[in-house]
User: Fold this.
Amino acid sequence: MNPTAILSLLPLLFGFLAFPVQSCAADLVTWKSGESLTRLARASHKKDFFPLSNNFISQDNAIFCGPVSSAIVLNALRLGKRDGLPIDRQSIIAEERNWLPAGADPFYGKYTPNNVLNERTKSRLEVLGKPILIKGTLTSDFGLQLRQLAQVLRSHDLNVVMRIVDETADTSAIRRELATNLAVADDFVLINYARKTLGQRGGGHISPLGAYDEASDSFLVMDVNPNRAPWVWVATDDLIAAMRTFDTVENRGYLLVSEGR
Assistant:
C-alpha cells in the first residue's frame, strides 16, 4: 500500500482518539477532520508521527500525562531495537498467573507509565501528591513539571535538551527547532503547556508533537488524554503562548529527546 493510501486510512485507524469530542477553540483543527488529513498528507516535517503513533498509549488517570508521554517516547526509540527492556507485570495479578502453565512468563519487555519512574526521579507517590520541598515548603506537586520530566528521561540515559519558554524566547527560533526535530527520525519533542491558553478544559499538560505543517504554520499535538481532548493542530503562535505560562517554579516549555550516545 502506498503512503498516500495509508494516510487516507489514518482517521479510521485512530478515530478512537477523538472521543469524546469536546468543542475546541476556533483555531484548533481536530484530528478527525478532513483539514487534519490534508495537513498531515502535505507536511514534510512528520518523521516522528509514525513511530509515535505505533507506540501510542493514552492516560488512564488525570495525573500521569508525564509518565505516559515518557513511555511513548522510550518505546518509540527502543522497542524492537534492544533487549532487556523493563517488564511491567501489573496487567495480570499474581492470583491470575496461577492458572498459567508452570514457568510461563507472558509479559513483554516495554516501557509503561508504571515503570518509567525510578529512584533517580520524582517518586510515584510524589507524582500523585505526596508533598515535596518547594522553596522551603512541603507542597503537593501533582504530576511532573518540565524539569522533572527531563529527569525522568535522563534517568533512562536519553539525551534531553530542555527549553524553558519565557518572555525572551524567540518564536522563529522555537518554530525552526521544533520543525527540524520533526523532520528527522529518532528524536522527539515533548511539550508542557497550559490547556486553557488553547481554549481547552484543564490545566497544565504534557504530550508529544507529531508533525509540523508549514503551509498552515501549525503543529500536531498528539494529546495523551483522549478523555479530555482529541489530537489537534495548533498554530505556532498559540502553541508557544500555551508553553509561555508559569508552572509552580518556572515557565513551561519543551524537551528535545534522543537516544543517548
Remarks:
- DSSP finds nine helices and eleven strands in the chain.
- The radius of gyration is 19 Å.
- The first strand starts at residue 28 and ends at 30.
- The CA atoms of residues 52 and 88 lie 20 Å apart.
